[in-house]
Structure formats: C-alpha cells, structure tokens
Amino acid sequence: MSKSLKRVETALKQAGHAIHILEMDGSTRTAVEAAAQAGCAVDQIAKSIVFKGVKSGAICVFITPGGRQVDMALAAQVAGEALARADGKEVRNATGFAIGGVSPVGHLTPPHVFFDPALLAFDTVWAAAGTPRHIFEIAPADLATVAQARMAAFTC
C-alpha cells in the first residue's frame, strides 16, 4: 500500500469512519474519469483543488463538486487573501499527494480547507484516496467534518 493511500485510510479510521477504499480499473485523475469509475454523477465527485495564498503562501484546499469550477474572486474572499493555483511540486510538498490523486483528508501539513455546500445535496460523494486510481465513498457532511473544512460558497 502506498504511503499516500495509507495516510488517507488512517485519517478516515482515526475519525471513526470504517470506509472501504476502492482501487479502480481505470484512472480517477479527473472528475469525469472518477464519476465513470464510481458509476455516479460528476457532481458527486468531491474534487480537491489546491491554491496558495499570494501573500502568505498558505495552502488552501477547496472541496467542490466535480462539475463545478472554483470562482477565484469568491475563493479569495473566503480565504481572506488573493490566491494562485499551487503547482505540482507545491501540492505534493504540502499535501503529500500528486495532482490527480489529492485527497481531502490525510495531508502532510494541515491546510486551510473549504467545503462547497452544494455537495450536501447528495447522500454520498466520492473522493480521491491519495492516488490516481483509489477513491472512497462517504456522506458529504462526514467528509466536511473529517476534512475539518469550513462551509463556504466559492464555485460558479
């Protein structure tokens, strides 16, 4: 088991969730790929988009439905500063995950996490489990709690 996958599994177990992580036959790097593999709607994919504060350099993770985009102006308001997209190296250094497998839980360094309340429309959502081929299913409210996320509207 990869270190990334193990961190996600450990974070979920420590939060009291006995969730089975699934290894998929195909890639789950994008929300469309993940939805096809999970057999769910694209918006049921809880994707983790990573930004950094322009002044502070603080890492911010925005958990959003797979079919939505982060509105940079709204995200900056929520984060309290202008944001820039984190590059692959910054993402891996802060979260411990490669782009395409960034989990909303189990980060190396705890980021600021924001959760789109639109995900609450679903009974369950699917999220990356630390690799481009592993995902897990969870109730969205439970995901927000485990991720220690703040509810905020930041998508368009």
Structural summary, described in words:
- The model has no long low-confidence stretch (mean pLDDT 93).
- By secondary structure, the protein is α/β, with parallel strands linked by helices.
- 45% of the residues are buried.
- It has five helices and eight strands; from the N terminus they run αβαββαβαβββαβ.
Quickly list its features.
alpha/beta; 5 helices; 156 residues; eight-stranded mixed sheet; single chain
What's the SSE pattern? HEHEEHEHEEEHE
* Tally of strands: 8
The computed structural class is alpha/beta
Strand content: 15-25%
Whole-Å distance between the termini? 37 Å
What's the tally of helices? Answer: 5
Integer average pLDDT: 93
Radius of gyration: 14 Å
Q: Level of helix content? A: 25-40%
User: Could you say which overall geometry the principal axes of the C-alpha atoms support?
Assistant: globular
Largest sheet: 8 strands, mixed
Ordered list of secondary-structure elements with their pairings:
Elements (H helix, E strand, L loop, with lengths): L2 H12 L7 E2 L7 H8 L6 E9 L5 E7 L6 H8 L3 E3 L2 H8 L16 E4 L9 E4 L5 E5 L1 H7 L3 E2 L5
Parallel strand pairs: 2-6, 3-5, 5-8
Antiparallel strand pairs: 1-7, 2-3, 2-4, 6-7
Question: Could you give a short description of this structure?
Answer:
28% of the residues lie in helices and 23% in strands.
